[in-house]
Amino acid sequence: NAGVMQNPRHLVRRRGQEARLRCSPVKGHSHVYWYRQLPEEGLKFMVYLQKENIIDESGMPKERFSAEFPKEGPSILRIQQVVRGDSAAYFCASSLSGTGDSGNTIYFGEGSWLTVV
Amino acid sequence: DAKTTQPPSMDCAEGRAANLPCNHSTISGNEYVYWYRQIHSQGPQYIIHGLKNNETNEMASLIITEDRKSSTLILPHATLRDTAVYYCIVRVPGTASKLTFGTGTRLQVTL
């Protein structure tokens, strides 16, 4: 998948703990997207970030979820006080740019599987 | 982004061509057609995209009708490893332009 790296690949958390998922985009990409896929369901957009800025967070739950993409380092999706319903696969994707490119392909990582027990 | 319609499932014999249709009758002039696939328990994989002209790469061919209201993804020689859910997505590649996934077509390649 063209170099988007996600870790951890699998994460187990107890209810009430915090989960942090990290995403390193393809080298040179400055746009990051996070998606969630619940068991047996489709991919749902969560948030779109450009370096240090949240561009679109229309798919993010209002509470407990946050995302950042700092100037240096990976993008982080943070889930506080996890509940069993947060158990899902979380996919990160990246693109070179978001503006006016005639193709601007988005590439995905292999995902982080969160299990809340 | 325009809505797309795909058949929920298709079967294809190994070695034969798999032709996956997609309707996007409300597509606008600056929207591209993208195809991704998701093999079980893996991340979505980019396959191909196009605007008006037919496109071909090492994975597949994309045929877009002249009126751009529908397209077909062709896997010329399907293998068992092509079994996956295939998503057709239309998108304007610009600011704040995310991919919106529908339900896709579940392609089952059989011996």
Structure description:
- The complex is a heterodimer of chains A (117) and B (111).
- Chain A is mainly beta and 117 residues long.
- Chain A has no helices and eleven strands.
- Chain A has strands at 5-7, 10-13, 19-24, 31-37, 43-50, 53-56, 65-68, 75-79, 88-95, 107-108, 112-116.
- By secondary structure, chain B is mainly beta.
- Helix content of chain B is 0%, strand content 45%.
- Chain B contains no helices and nine strands.
- In chain B, β3 and β4 form a beta hairpin.
- At the A-B interface, β5, β9 and β10 of A face β3 and β4 of B.
Can you summarize this structure?
The complex is a heterodimer of chains A (117) and B (111). Helix content of chain A is 0%, strand content 48%. Chain A has strands at residues 5-7, 10-13, 19-24, 31-37, 43-50, 53-56, 65-68, 75-79, 88-95, 107-108, 112-116.
Quickly list its features:
heterodimer; A: 117 residues; mainly beta; seven-stranded mixed β-sheet; four-stranded antiparallel β-sheet; 0% helix; 48% strand; globular; B: 111 residues; 45% strand
Helix content of chain A: under 10%
What average pLDDT do the residues of chain B reach? 93
According to DSSP, the number of beta strands of chain A is 11
Instruction: State the assembly state of the protein chains.
Output: heterodimer
| Most extensive interface between two protein chains, with residue counts | A-B, 29 and 24 residues
- Helix count of chain A equals 0
